[in-house]
Amino acid sequence: MSMNLTVSFPGGKKVDVTFDAHTVHTDQPVSGGGEDTAPAPYDLFLASIASCAGIYIVGFCQGRGVDPSLVRLTQRVEFDPETHLASKIDLDLELSPAFPEKYVQALVRVVDQCKVKKSMAAPPVFSVNPRAAQA
Prior knowledge:
The protein is an alpha+beta fold and 135 residues long. 29% of the residues lie in helices and 27% in strands. The strands form two sheets. The chain has a three-stranded antiparallel beta sheet, with no helix packed on it.
């Protein structure tokens, strides 16, 4: 199984990525020379962790007849001051008193299975392959 994503450059610091029937737009903040018309790529990366954890919460709750709105997920990110990369990511689950106690530990285990988080723990091999454009 593979997936191809196509990158285009619509102008300025904007970069679009198209895959399947979707296009993800990115831009840089004004301080980085962009127009701040879309999230920066690194911000999308961080958001993908939170949204992945979120979809695991939704699936868990829906599978047990529990309203997902009884869970609030907050992702806190600490950055290394030298590299400016994330050095610690906390996923905080705030549970309504109405959330069934019997599911709390199982919910924690489910969120821990987030595919994006697991991909970070076992990163893929990267390669950059220059090729001449075909006429």
